[in-house]
Amino acid sequence: MEETFLGLYRSLNNGKWKNYITTDEAWFYMNNVNGNGVFRFMVWGGASFNDALRLYPDGDFVFHHDSAPSHISKITTEFMKGKLKFISQEKWMPKSPDAAPMDYFVWGYMKQQLWRTKAKDVAALKRIWKDMPQELVNKTL
Question: Which InterPro entries did the record assign (predicted)?
Answer without folding.
Answer: RNaseH_sf
